[in-house]
């Protein structure tokens, strides 16, 4: 009967402990979800179309951006950091709740003793000891130490959230930039092949005139040299295109040797240059909403909360404590107890007041460190704001310059094409020399190169402006 009673005590303690652990798990889960800001929960519910199928042919910009967001290590690492910060925020929130723990123990003991006493010459004991203990503790008041720590971890979570947003913008920008770099390289390769075709036609015209006795051998050699240079330029342009395609494939989570076919180049006349007065509005918007600025400000708020936490830790705290224990000792042997089992039960409840008196001025140094860290972060916020504003200004200027350069480059190519057609017709009719034809051919090749460069700079400038403002959903990323 006594053994059964002991087991009942232990089973009750185990059941109570399991129930308490389950209840606390539910409470902590709810607290953790409450701790995470709504913005972070919104990101968790974003449905990014991650696919593992082969990329479409042709590959459009939107699909490339989706694949990059799904597979790029930068976004994966930033999101993992958000999860780490969310777990830490949950730990800080858990400090506001009571702690309940159970201890179960059991042992088997044996002892023998002998003495010269005639009354008790021998004393022996053998038996088992079982015990169960349930403790409860709840910090009631600590001068705001826990609240400050909760605030600090929440701000760090907000900072991680904004860092994730910044990582998304960086991935979008780099992928879009590499996408247009590949388009530019493809256009350069096409232009180089077209130049090679023009050079071949010039060589054919020079050879025909040589055979007809209307041109010298030097004319043919000059045309042949120009064709060789055009062939070499075409090979180099194709190699640059292959390299750009490999870079884009790596951005979207594929091996560099994965064959990709890109969509047609978007219209280079898309959109208008923002008005000059709008640059101040763009800077103001970036300073208010750019993820890097928001992340730095959240870090600054976290350091301010850390100061409050360090101060509160140097002050007293009040905690409520309670406990319940039960033990049973089953024994056989001699002695005064006659080998009878024994049982014990105890309980307590009270209030514990912890007063830090002296710890070697450690709290003073911790507060000083927190204040210095706050100053460091304040300077970091100012530097981040300065960099963001300057980048918006530079990107704005590049957009205006790129649009003007593109307009001039398009006109230059049109004029150079007309000049080349006229020079070729004049040469075939015997009016112009081979030097005039080759000069017009070189001018057309250079005009094509200038237009391709201007088009690429126009697209990249718009991408840079959208990224610097912190708005990947703006027109800069919607060029299709």
TrEMBL record:
Its main location: membrane. Transmembrane segments: none annotated. It is a peripheral membrane protein. InterPro entries: CyaE (IPR028351), MdtP/NodT-like (IPR010131), OMP_efflux (IPR003423). Gene3D superfamilies: Outer membrane efflux proteins (OEP). It is found in: Cell outer membrane. Coiled coil: none annotated. Keywords: Cell outer membrane, Cytolysis, Hemolysis, Membrane, Transport. One of its GO terms (cellular component) is cell outer membrane. GO terms for biological process: killing of cells of another organism. GO terms for molecular function: efflux transmembrane transporter activity. Belongs to the outer membrane factor (OMF) (TC 1.B.17) family. CyaE is necessary for transport of calmodulin-sensitive adenylate cyclase-hemolysin (cyclolysin). PANTHER family: OUTER MEMBRANE CATION EFFLUX PROTEIN, PROTEIN CYAE. This is Protein CyaE. It comes from Paraburkholderia solisilvae. The gene is bepC.
């Amino acid at each position: 009967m006594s053994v059964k009673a002991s087991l009942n005590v232990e089973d009750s303690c185990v059941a109570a402990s399991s129930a308490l652990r389950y209840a606390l798990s539910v409470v902590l889960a709810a607290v953790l979800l409450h701790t995470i800001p709504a913005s972070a929960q919104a990101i968790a519910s974003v449905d990014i179309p991650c696919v593992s199928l082969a990329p479409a042919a042709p590959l459009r910009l939107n699909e490339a951006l989706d694949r990059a967001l799904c597979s790029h290590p930068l976004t994966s690492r930033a999101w993992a950091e958000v999860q780490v910060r969310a777990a830490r925020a949950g730990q800080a929130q858990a400090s506001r709740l009571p702690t309940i723990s159970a201890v179960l123990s059991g042992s088997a003991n044996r002892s023998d003793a002998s003495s010269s006493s005639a009354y008790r010459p021998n004393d022996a004991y053998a038996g088992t000891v079982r015990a169960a203990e349930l403790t409860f503790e709840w910090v009631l008041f600590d001068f705001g130490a826990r609240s400050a720590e909760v605030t600090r971890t929440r701000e760090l979570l907000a900072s991680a959230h904004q860092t994730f947003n910044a990582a998304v913008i960086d991935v979008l920008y780099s992928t879009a930039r590499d996408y247009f770099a590949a388009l530019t390289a493809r256009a350069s390769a096409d232009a180089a092949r077209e130049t090679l075709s023009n050079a071949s036609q010039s060589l054919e015209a020079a050879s025909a005139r040589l055979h007809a006795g209307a041109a010298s051998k030097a004319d043919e050699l000059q045309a042949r040299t120009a064709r060789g240079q055009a062939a070499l330029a075409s090979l180099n342009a194709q190699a640059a295109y292959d390299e750009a395609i490999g870079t884009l494939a790596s951005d979207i989570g594929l091996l560099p040797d994965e064959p990709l076919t890109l969509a047609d180049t978007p219209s280079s006349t898309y959109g208008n240059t923002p008005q000059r007065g709008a640059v101040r509005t763009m800077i103001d918007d970036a300073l208010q909403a750019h993820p890097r600025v928001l992340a730095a400000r959240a870090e600054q708020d976290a350091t301010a909360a850390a100061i409050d936490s360090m101060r509160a830790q140097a002050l007293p705290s009040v905690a409520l404590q309670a406990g319940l224990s039960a033990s049973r000792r089953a024994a056989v042997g001699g002695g005064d107890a006659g080998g009878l089992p024994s049982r014990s039960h105890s309980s307590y409840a009270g209030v514990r007041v912890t007063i830090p008196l002296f710890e070697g001025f450690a709290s003073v140094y911790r507060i000083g460190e927190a204040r210095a860290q706050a100053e460091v972060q304040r300077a970091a916020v100012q530097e981040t704001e300065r960099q963001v504003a300057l980048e918006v200004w530079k990107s704005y200027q590049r957009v205006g310059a790129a649009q003007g350069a593109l307009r001039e480059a398009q006109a230059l190519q049109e004029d150079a094409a007309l000049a080349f057609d006229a020079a070729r017709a004049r040469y075939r009719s015997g009016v112009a020399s081979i030097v005039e034809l080759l000069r017009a051919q070189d001018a057309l090749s250079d005009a094509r190169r200038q237009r391709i460069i201007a088009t690429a700079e126009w697209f990249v400038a718009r991408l840079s402006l959208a990224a610097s403002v912190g708005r990947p959903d703006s027109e800069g990323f919607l060029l299709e």
